[in-house]
Amino acid sequence: MVTPETLDPAPAEVPLRRNRNFQLLWSGSGLALLGREITDLVYPLVVLAVTGSPAWAGAFGATQMAVSLLAGLPAGKLADTHDQRLLLIIMETVRAIATTSVLVAVLHDAITLPHLLAVAAIVGAVQPLGGSARMLLVRAVVPPRQLTAALTQEEVRSHAAALGGPSLGGLLYATATVLPFLATAVSFVVSLVCALFVRPPARARKPTVDGDRRMLAGLAQLWKVPILRHSTMFAAVLNAVSAPLVLVVIVVLTRDGASPGTVGLTMAGLAVGGLAGTVLVRPLHDRLTPGALMLWLGGTAVLLIAALSLPFGAWWLAIALFLLGLGGPSMRVLMDILIFRQVPDEQRGRTVTAFMTVLGVGSSAGMLASGLLVEHLSAQAAILTLATVLAIALGVSISDRRIRSVQWPTETENRS
């Protein structure tokens, strides 16, 4: 039985702008995310410059993603059973050292492919560890009634970094190869310093009935709670369909003879839409139930993805991507809220990383399938195929009464 003494101490309810711990986490992670976006663009360029091989350039990202997926479930267990602030500090320290090693290699003209692939593996391994720890820290320092607002600010940070990072990375790389790595290393160090000054409330563990500390407990939680099970499956399909859209749209534009500048501006529509969509999170969450919101976002996504197949040029693709991006923040915050409010505290880390792992598997499968589709079909046919897959998943979800009728859980539902 859970008693009041075993519950997490509630953080003081002050405006988020005056919540010192949240602002440290938000600012530090914002800079770190900007740095990561910078090097996500630059690393493939450096690999291409070193090897001259597009395949090896793609191998960098594939290595990082594969290691992140493998590390996801163990990372969740560590986040549940160890000091989350310490884990965040470890992640930022490792990322700063790894990036600095590349910076030093570039300065000495000693950069090699094995070194870069090792960095990809190291960064991929610590990413889910620090990411899940930071999410749980946000939950610990933000009062329950402010959780939606805090997660919305997280979305603002993510989309702002996604919008500004690639262009800044290209500018720095064009100026000097070392500059993007210097900027990224500094961003990780600043995030590390911010983490050092975070003072979360003392964690008071709630006793569990079965003492379940298995690494796969997060997946079990996602499967056990019906709304989490169905929404996770739907989100995985949505991610599998959405992740390869960038590749497919680039193929469409390239085949139409668009310039690199036009391609960049068109793809920016998705990031701008995501940033603009953060202002819709609170209104949509206030007016719609979780099931209705998920189905509405899925329905609009089907229509907008299908609209990408229409041959109206880059401006049309940019508008469709912008509109598609508008729903992203609401869907991600919806899933975060459901996890945080329905999963016991001692299993939230594993559940968050299990959810991200499922999405990662969906993204990987979607990228692989879309590559095969584009190779054997026209880009327009590939887009319509992706839209059809999502429409089928949407139809299955609409037919499920439990999804249609689910209500927002209260903060206390996971504490009984």
TrEMBL record:
Q: Tell me which UniProt keywords the record has, alphabetically.
A: Cell membrane, Membrane, Transmembrane, Transmembrane helix, Transport
- Pfam families linked: MFS_3
Presence of keyword Protein biosynthesis: no
Please report the stretch or stretches of sequence annotated as the Major facilitator superfamily (MFS) profile domain.
228-416
Membrane topology note:
Multi-pass membrane protein
One GO cellular component term of this record is: plasma membrane
GO molecular function terms noted in the UniProt entry: transmembrane transporter activity
Q: Which residues cross the membrane?
A: 86-107, 171-198, 233-254, 260-281, 293-310, 316-340, 352-373, 379-398
Highest taxon of source: Bacteria
For whether the record's keyword set contains Methyltransferase, the answer is: no
Q: What is its main location?
A: membrane
Cellular localisation: Cell membrane
User: What is this protein's name?
Assistant: MFS family permease
